[in-house]
Amino acid sequence: MLAFVLTVLSTELASLSVGEASTFQLLSVTAGTFVALTYLYGKTGICGVFVGLTFYYSFINIKPSGIGYLYTLIISALLMLSLRVIERIKNHQHATKFIFGYFVFCLPGITTLALSILAPNELNRTLALHLYLTDSIGILITAPIIALAILSVQRIRSPKSLKKLLMSLLPAHMLCKLALVATLVLVLERLGQEHVDSYLYYMMLAPLVILAVLTFQN
């Protein structure tokens, strides 16, 4: 039920934006939600994602072209595949880093490629780049936050436990991460306001995403 509710809410949040670029930016929040639910709840979380997306595109935001259902099938299949990847490498000493990199780079890349091939009229080159990079950045930023929030709510049973959780955060590390996230958001905001033919902002985003992966991987 939690996976279903979060899926519907995050997808509805994406629909509140104005303009194609902004819409794909907010879709990144949805992608981050999917990854967090998959990592925390496995097949149960993926089933919630699938049902939530199907419900959303059937009753809330109906797409006559069927692109919503296509996206639902692709992302659900890839999330299921990711469980097999996690199962195979979970005992490796660098498993967490590999899984994080897989979700940040491979999942949005394969999703975008599949949508571009199967629905070329719905996703041109510019929108494909928007979708890939913003999903990647969204997974990078929002998936850990959503997963941490869910786990924290489950662990907080008293004011003392909340205080202990807050004290466990290192201020210096948090400031560096917040600065990096703020830089990514500023670049995305600039990208959403202007039509860029030279792909300068994509070149700016690439090193920021790589740096963010190295920063957040632990």
TrEMBL record:
<keyword id="KW-1133">Transmembrane helix</keyword>
<keyword id="KW-0812">Transmembrane</keyword>
<feature type="transmembrane region" description="Helical">
    <location>
        <begin position="98"/>
        <end position="119"/>
    </location>
</feature>
<protein>
    <recommendedName>
        <fullName>Signal transduction histidine kinase 5TM receptor LytS transmembrane region domain-containing protein</fullName>
    </recommendedName>
</protein>
<keyword id="KW-0472">Membrane</keyword>
<feature type="transmembrane region" description="Helical">
    <location>
        <begin position="68"/>
        <end position="86"/>
    </location>
</feature>
<feature type="transmembrane region" description="Helical">
    <location>
        <begin position="46"/>
        <end position="62"/>
    </location>
</feature>
<feature type="transmembrane region" description="Helical">
    <location>
        <begin position="165"/>
        <end position="187"/>
    </location>
</feature>
<feature type="transmembrane region" description="Helical">
    <location>
        <begin position="199"/>
        <end position="216"/>
    </location>
</feature>
<feature type="transmembrane region" description="Helical">
    <location>
        <begin position="131"/>
        <end position="153"/>
    </location>
</feature>
